[in-house]
């Protein structure tokens, strides 16, 4: 099997691999055995950088021998912006989900209701209501109205 790429297609492929690499192997660079095959494929594709005229995009690290992505100092690459948007969105989604579940379970306990007796649909509907509340709050105010309490300073509720 043989693949041929134009320089533009190769650069786009490098962007896709860079994004996936940031998520799959951001800190390990192929050390995690379960992710090693992804890193090896990335390295194989990066190794063609000279053939495609992409010396400004990829370089070989002289100390490790690994092919690495070159970055501009101003973080202006489109993929950096895409990753930043992904991380930001993931943060808010995860925060909403965790806070909604925490508060739903606390309210059910206060009401003396057993969540295990709820249907999946009832639980998801209730969880969505709590999530909608937090989503609206965070869209309007960000973290402005979030307050953390310390048990040691306020005692337990």
Any overview of this molecule?
This protein has five helices and two strands. It has helices at 7-24, 36-46, 78-110, 120-141, 151-154; strands at 58-60, 67-69. A hairpin with a 6-residue loop joins strand 1 (58-60) and strand 2 (67-69). The protein has a two-stranded antiparallel sheet. The mean pLDDT is 87. The protein folds into two domains: 7-69, no CATH class; 78-143, no CATH class. With 157 residues, the chain is mainly α. The chain is elongated and about 65 Å long.
Q: How is the topology of this model organized?
A:
Elements: H1 7-24, H2 36-46, E1 58-60, E2 67-69, H3 78-110, H4 120-141, H5 151-154
Antiparallel strand pairs: 1-2
Report the sheet with the most strands, covering strand number, pairing sense and barrel closure.
2 strands, antiparallel
Q: Order of strands in the sheet with the most strands?
A: 1-2
Percent strand equals under 5%
Label the overall shape: elongated
The number of helical segments is 5
Provide mean pLDDT, rounded. Answer: 87
Q: Give the H and E element order.
A: HHEEHHH
Number of domains: 2
Termini Cα gap: 65 Å
Give the % helix. 55-70%
Number of strands: 2
Give the class from helix and strand content and strand pairing.
mainly alpha
Radius of gyration: 23 Å
